[in-house]
Amino acid sequence: MVNPQIFRQYDIRGVVDKDLTNETLYLIGKGYGTFLRRQDLKTVAIAGDARLSTPHFKQNFIKGMREVGIDVIDVGIMATPVLYYSIWKLKTDGGVVITASHNPAEYNGIKMNKGLQSVYGQDIQEILKLIQADDFESGEGTLSTNDEMHEFYKDYIVAGIKLDRPVKVIVDGGNGAGGPYLPEILRRLGCEVKELYCEPDGTFPNHHPDPTVEKYMTDLIAEVKNSDAEVGLGLDGDGDRIGVIDEKGKMLFGDQTLNIIARDFLKHHPGEKIIGDVKCSKNFFDDIKKHGGIPIMYKTGHANIKSKMQEEGLLMSGEMSGHIFLKDRFLGFDDAIYVSARFVEIMSKTDKPVSRFLEDQPKMYNTPELHYKSTDEDKFKLVEKVRDSFIEEGYDVNDIDGMRITFKDGWGLCRASNTTPVLVLRYEAETEERLQEIKKLIEDRIEKFK
Length: 450
Prior knowledge:
- The protein is an alpha/beta fold.
- The chain folds into 3 domains: about 5-150, Alpha-D-Glucose-1,6-Bisphosphate, Chain A, domain 3, CATH 3.40.120.10; about 165-355, Alpha-D-Glucose-1,6-Bisphosphate, Chain A, domain 3 (3-Layer(aba) Sandwich), CATH 3.40.120; about 365-450, 2-Layer Sandwich (TATA-Binding Protein), CATH 3.30.310.50.
- Helix content is about 35%, strand content about 20%.
- It contains 13 helices and 22 strands.
- The strands form 4 sheets. Strands 1, 2, 3, 4, 5, 6 and 7 form a 7-stranded mixed sheet that branches. Strands 17, 18, 19, 20, 21 and 22 form a 6-stranded antiparallel sheet that branches.
- Helix 1 (about 20-35) packs across helix 4 and helix 12 (about 380-390) packs across helix 13.
C-alpha cells in the first residue's frame, strides 16, 4: 500500500510516481490527521515548495486530512520556515509542508509538525502503522486559504533586525522556495543585493539546491569574487539551511557560520548553553567555552535538536549541515532566511571582512562531510560494530550519535545517516598528515566489518 522505506527519521521522502503518488499522499494525510485527532488536535496549516508534483500532492494530502476531521488552512507555496511561522501566527495545532528540501527534482516529500515541534522518529512510524492497519478517524474537516503569511513573515523579520550600515550581498536562492523572501528582506533593511536563481523552479535548472556543497556554489563563488560584494548567501531547496561564501569566494562550513553567530549571541547571553551536532569542529566547541558559553555535543538532525532545545530551554543551537536554530529574538526553528539576515546584521557592526571573523582560531585541517555507501538495512549495524571495536580497544569514544573518537590532536566521526543509505564520516586534526592517519584508521575498520 505504501513503501515503509520512505518513512524516515525526520520526514517522509521518496521518488515521485514510484514511492509517492496521489494515493500515497491521500493515505498519509489520513494517517497524520488521525495521529493529531487522537491527541485532541484539529487545525493544520499546509504549504508546499515549488516542485512540479507539489500542487496535486498537496491537494491529496488535504483531502486525506479533511476526511478524518482536520480543519485545514492552505497557506500556499512557501519556504519551510515560513510554514513554521504560519503555525505560530495562525496558532494551529499542526503544520505540513510538501517538500523534498535539497533532494533532486525527481523527489518529493512531507515534513510534518505538531505545534512548532517536528513529528519524527517513533511518531512517524506510528503514522505508518495507522496506514498499514487502515485505522483512521472519520469526520468532515473544513478548508480555507490564507495568502497573507508571506508578507507578515517578511515584516516580522525586518522589524527584528537592525543594521548599523548597508552591506553588499549576493543571494543564490537555488531556484528553491526561499528565493522570493531573502532579497526583499535584505533590501528593506538597507542592503545592496544581487540575485542569483531566486525564481522558484521545481526543475532546479541551474544547480542542485544544496548550499553546503561547494560544487553547487560555483556560480555564487564566481559572482562574489568578481564583484565588491561582502558576502554570498545560499539557500537550500526549502529555505531552512544556509550556505555562506566570504568576500574572497571561500566557503564557510556550517559550524563556522554557527560559530560566528554564537560569538555575537554570547555577548548578550553569557553563560548560555549552545548545542552543536557531532559533526562540528573541535574549534567550535572550544570557542563557545572561550567566549563564556557552555557547549553541548548532540545528535545530528533538525528534529532531534529542536526537541533537545525545548527540553533544555535553550536559545540557540545548530548543525554542521547549515540548520541553525535561534529562539533569541526569534521563534526557535531552523530558518536560513532569518539566519541570513542575522548574519548580515553582525557584519554591519564591523568593517572587518567575513574572512577574518574567525582568524584568531587555531589552524585545523578538516574534511567536509564525507559519505560511504552502505544500505538502509546494514548501515546502523555496521556503525555499531566499528564503534564497539574501538571502545573495546580503549579509545575515547562519544556514542551519542554513531561514534566520535577523540585524540589529543584530532577526531574522527562515523555515523549512519538517518535519511540516506550511507555512513557519514568527518575528520579533523592539527596536521594534514594526522588527518589522513585518523581517516585511514576509521575507514580500514569500516572495510573490515563491511
